[in-house]
Amino acid sequence: MAIYLDHAATSPLRPEVLEAMMPYLTTHHGNASSIHASGRRARQGLDEARETIAGLIGAKPREIVFTSGGTEADNLALKGVAWAASARGRHIITSSVEHKAVMNTCAMLERRGFEVTYLPVDRYGRVDPSELAAAITERTILVSVMAANNEVGTLQPIAEIGAVCRAHNVPFHTDAVQAAAFGPPTPDAWQATLIALSAHKLGGPIGIGALYVRQGTALLPQMQGGAQERQRRAGTENVAAAVGFATAMRASYRETPNTALRDRLIGALTGLTGVQLTGHPTERLPNSASFVIEGIEGGDLVAALDLEGIEASTGSACTTGSVEPSHVLLAMGIDEQLAHGSLRLTLGPETTAADVERTISVVEGCVARLRASAPQVAASA
Amino acid sequence: MSRIVAAMSGGVDSSVAAALLAREATDDEVIGVWMRTHGDLPEGYELSRSCCSPDAADDARRVAQILDIPFFILNVEREFGDRVIDAFVDSYLEGATPNPCQACNQYIKFDELLRRGLAAYGADAVATGHYARLEHRDGRWRLMRAADADKDQTYFLWVLSQGQLARTRFPLGDLTKPEVRAMAAELTLPTAQKPESQEICFVPLGDYRALLEERRGYAGDPGPIVDARGERVGTHTGYAHYTVGQRHGLGVALGEAVYVREVLPATNTVVIGRRDEVAQRSFTVDGARFTAGEPPTERFEASVRIRHRAPDVPAEVTMVGRDRFVVETAEPVWAPAPGQAAVLYDADECLGGGRITRT
Ligand SMILES: Cc1ncc(COP(=O)(O)O)c(C=O)c1O
What we know:
Bound molecules: pyridoxal-5'-phosphate
Structural class of chain B: alpha/beta
Number of strands of chain A: 12
Largest sheet of chain A: 7 strands, mixed
Strand content of chain A: 5-15%
Number of helices of chain A: 14
Helix content of chain B: 25-40%
Oligomer: heterodimer
């Protein structure tokens, strides 16, 4: 069995989640909008899931909008607020290390006449709240800064960012898709207006997420159709997935993440020559260890590890083989050449100390092999 | 146990090559690799028939899934851009005829895939869907023509060294194209019915002129077309738009068929001639490489081929230094074009070759 160290890409479905979903995939069929008993039973599952999630994050159930995932939640937040507020202003502020779900949505809004400011980050990938304060104008209609970065695991000073937004009375969206796997997002402590969530990063099914929308927020729906989700997201509700999402969230908040294994990985790998940690040394996701490695191509290393039974990532789940170095690493000031050699290892609840030790020695061996084949030496063989 | 990287283009040939390895080599582990040679195309733009389109990656992946082998994408955009596309463009600018398929084989499929494939995947060998055979005889590897003479691709493989040949497999070498198609159909591979790709994969619709402008800013500067005696007989659109042997698009009416005989960048001149004026009995070749590592002797007999699918011609080859040779053919050969490969054979064995130079 392979050692799976790519939980940031997606995490295995928890057994209790599958169990909770099963009835809704088999006997408890029914459309949650139907009048009859089957419909009511489905509706109950959906309502309970919404209540569970709202309860876990300290929100009201009506503030939770189910979506098809984190990407859709980000799209709904950004486009929904942008279009609703466009008469008032057309300026959006985000960071330069966002997930593509935010970044490309901003790019699309730019093409539609919005102005977007991309805040710089320090070498750990953190936004400076005072730079945010300086960037806000009276035309600013939304700030979007992620809670935790998916590539390098860095946590943003999210409450401080929220406080700046609150002080300027600007709505604040945060993509908490990664952060939410390790403790409940807190809309009130963060002073967030909108929060994007996804189930599959915390042991739930792929294909469901949610957007927390603070009551009273003007949001234009991005999907036209039926009146589901209080007219904010049309489409027959995915009840089984919503139940799975709620179950997964509750289960993951009962666990305390084991940072010792992450720290062992970081310590051992940064001890190798030409390997450096990316992201913040302490203010980072408890399961995330990310690196840049001199003299290798990240994609080649990940393929090599796979053939040795270790499943890792270069930083984002990308199978198209594009060579664009990560915008996150570049924004952190990492040299372009070095940025090609990225490796991300993200641990899960099932990861053992033995897995970590094996990973350390296999990474060391593969890196040595890849470096030995650098063009100058081989090619002419 | 050995590990073999199967280069999968998404076409029927490399699909069957991978299938043969995966099915027969029970002891070997086969890994499918598709090489990404260029970036995303602009939206709404398709190169559906080329081996480098995203569709081709989809096809290769589906075949790998059916064969139950691991599948990776290897990015070679940088190398392909420098070694194949730029070299292609520069060839025209030098007044020569480019040889992109050979460059791709040499630099991408063998140098790059062997080097990186061996390192990244811990592999021992690379397999491709080329029609060629390998034999180990008298202490060395020999590159042999394919059993299907019609499909033989040794013309594009002459650059391979002993080190590379030792780590290469050509599973299709003993098969004919119809047999390969039948095998693909039998295995229900989605690529079984795919048409042959003919165009150059990075030149959509065969219009390379746009590429000259895009990569090197060459828009073409009109100049003289002259005949063998130096008499001006017409006007061309820019020397780099012409290659030796070309007949069409000259816009010259001399009452008989004329062909490009020479392309002269220095004076922006295109020289034409009648059919017999374009033939030659002797030409020089540089960048020579021999599959054995060295030429058989300083002077030897071989048959020479100067373009894909052209007939072989008996010739005498004389080495001039380490990597140059002069070819003298028994019969005049039709339009040896600077830039094209001259490939040498001893019966069915490919001895090596080089690049025809301006004479
Ligand atoms: C930070 C972040 N935002 C958004 C997403 C997208 O979520 P989903 O895969 O549910 O669409 C992901 C994960 O892919 C992510 O890591």
